[in-house]
Model the fold of this input.
Amino acid sequence: MNKRIVYCVLGFHAVVALLAPLLPLAPTDEQDPGAMLQGFSAAHWLGTDALGRDVLSRALHGGRPSLVIALLATALAAIIGVALGSLAALAGGWIDEALARLIDFLLAAPTLILLLLIASFFGHDPFILSVTLGLMYAAPIARVARGSTQVLLARDFVRVARLQGGRGVNLLFGEVLPNVWRVVLTEITMQFTWIILAFSSLSFLGLGASPPTPEWGLMIAEARSYMTINPLSVITPIVMLASLVLAVQALVDRE
Amino acid sequence: MKNLARRVLFTLGAFVSLGVLSFLGIDALPGDGCTALLGRFGTDAKIAECREEHRLNDPVVVRLGNWANDVVHGDLGYSIKRDEQVAQIVLPRIRNTAMLAVVAALMAFPSAIVAGLLIGRYPHSRTGRAINTLGVLAMTLPEFVIATILWLVFSIWIPIFPGVTVVPSNATVLELLPHIWMPALTLAAVVFAHSMRTMKAGVTTIQTMPFVESARLRGTKERVTLLRHILPAALPPVVNTIAVDAAWLLTGTFVTEAVFNYRGLGRLAIDAISDRDTAIILPIILFGLGVYLTMSLIADMVVRLLDPRLKQQRS
Done:
């Protein structure tokens, strides 16, 4: 995809997510019993859903819950993952072996069912969801951080730094991170999109955002039954979600 | 061989410890079989009585021991909520999910290998690029979006497949078959691009390697070069991708099954979770762990068999 289009789409999503409450839109939970499942009109540009709520307004607000949760969770996953992975590689020996097994272990954990369990038992609390997601998605980041740190440690300049007495955190911030951040950041960005998808899947299944919150996954779930009457109510959140995820992925795609 | 033994040992160890962890984790969640059965209308006395009857008051270590003993002897336990043996609930669902997985795998993997081989060999073909783009789209979008789009196209605009499964969970294979295409197509679309892209990347690097050049210079036919020289060298990494995807097809299909109301393991997991029926959730998690670990073990072994370079190292 053309980079310029990618930046435009990302910019659009950032502006909309930040400014949606300030824009002159219909309230997201205002029901209009006289205008249910309408197509596009002057009052409702993208029509209304089954409760007569404005689709455009809900779609523009609909990314906010996922973005807040995904940003929090990704930050947590990145901190844990990078620390775990690169410190394991730096430490070497049995510590590295043990941490590598721990990472394998975490990768084997069945993510979605654990997520469903936690969401179901602890309710829709966004904080708990972000922490859970952050812990779950740390393992793949740790694996990449460990792998790329290991490659780097064999390079001469790192060996020199080691011989000069650099170790631990100094070596991490001085030599390792400045050189691996590009690869690791790519992985973090990929995980960011997986987290968005995981959260919207949860909402779609009724365990993420709770009604009447406008959220894309939830909107698609609610509107699916009425798809033949007003296709816009389903297509709009699909386009919003798809454009965000595809743009983020295109940003890091190395092809 | 020593490596293999270590690998098997690690797999077993991981399975047992993750199993114990899951038991303890689920035990720590608020609610148990009795609260699930009696719901919010159960008085404290009734719940206490039910817990006494099903021996839920024993210390957690004792219950873990009993449960592990039962599982080893082939008894998956008993669902208080559904008043049924867990095996009778779970096994038909595993069969349904396995059928769905097989159909999806047959749709996705062979075509992905062929497509990857051809797109890697002829990167400038228009059809190849279109297939690549579509595959990447399907890989990136969430399943419920793909399912919704396919549903819109194949059940509403061109109504050739039924959109919702209405057969019971213990339906025969023939009764189930007409309802399998839509969920299978969704799952196939999700996994197709993974192995296709791995294959493509492999072919792209391999076809400039000396042994391929030499085959070409000897005047080998292009078809033979492609099938006898490039394909075998590009397959091993694809095996790993396929193993991960196959494990996912067997254990990760919650959303797709929910969308099409297909009565497999994923659908059951969602129902059990909203019922708080922990007796059913636990074997589903164990099944998932088992499948994932076994698949990565099998993939390792197949790669060893396929890749002559690793064979040399082994002896």
